[in-house]
Write a structure and sequence with these properties.
The protein is an alpha+beta fold and 164 residues long. It contains 4 helices and 4 strands; from the N terminus they run H-H-E-E-H-H-E-E. The chain has a two-stranded antiparallel sheet with strand order 1-2. It has a two-stranded antiparallel sheet with strand order 3-4. Strand 3 and strand 4 form a beta hairpin.
Length: 164
């Protein structure tokens, strides 16, 4: 019997439509959606927060004037993320369906590999969402890749275990 590998369309369908996977527990995209940008540089706007309270007012006088929040445009280079998974001949030829004695599972092995890579990607995306919020800085130093973006969050926005 010849091995039948899933098509790219089948793999994409399974990966994008899976349910009950760990990625359902990630919440970063619920407030920070992905927006594909095909460019070597990313430009974004930083809006200063509104702060303080409305002041008391005496009838018949001019109200206090407040400043509009500032907006600053920033630019940073793009970071790149990529992995691969290799299934050699032996793994494909002798892959056995879990819980069986001899049911072949090469096709399922390909799906499992794709799902694993997708879970790893979703984990990275979630980490990239939360790291700047918690630390104010995104710093990558792995595999000879050094990439740092300082979002210059105000100190009052610092999140720590000691924060009340």
């Amino acid at each position: 019997m010849a091995l039948q590998f899933p098509t790219t369309q089948e793999l994409n369908f399974v990966i994008r439509n899976r349910s009950g996977a760990n990625v359902a527990n990630f919440i970063g995209r619920s407030f920070c959606p992905l927006v594909p940008v095909y460019s070597k540089d990313i430009e974004y706007d930083v809006l200063s927060p509104a702060f303080g309270m409305t002041q008391a007012h005496q009838i018949g006088t001019n109200p206090k004037t407040v400043q509009m929040p500032k907006m600053e445009t920033k630019r940073t280079g793009t970071a790149y993320w990529k992995e691969t998974l290799r299934l050699d001949e032996e793994k494909l030829l002798y892959a056995r369906q879990a819980g069986t004695l001899n049911e072949r599972a090469a096709r399922d092995l390909v799906f499992q590999g794709g799902l694993q890579l997708d879970t790893r990607l979703e984990t990275r995306i979630e980490w990239l969402t939360w790291k700047p919020i918690i630390d104010g800085i995104l710093a990558i130093n792995e595999n000879n890749v050094k990439y740092t973006v300082d979002y210059k969050l105000p100190d009052k926005n610092d999140i720590s275990a000691a924060a009340t």
